Amino acid sequence: MSYKFIGQPPVGDRAISPARRSVKILMIGQPEDVELTIARLYQCGFCRVENWSRPLPFSQAPTATTREPGEIMRIYVRSMTL
Hints:
This protein is mainly alpha-helical and 82 residues long. The protein contains 1 helix and no strands. The longest helix has 13 residues, at 31-43. The mean pLDDT is 78.
């Protein structure tokens, strides 16, 4: 199976300062699964628990963050093993 990755956004979109760049990670699932995954990510040293937002209803997902010009989105789906 081959994958095609898109390149950087067009240069004309906007200048992005390296100090302002960020990646937003969106986690959607049942509350207990989301909390467990955040705890596991913390145990791996990936993130701090307190840096996550408060839990939001899925209906608020479109308004939870603002879109910056040139941004793309990728979603990683992983089955939970309980």
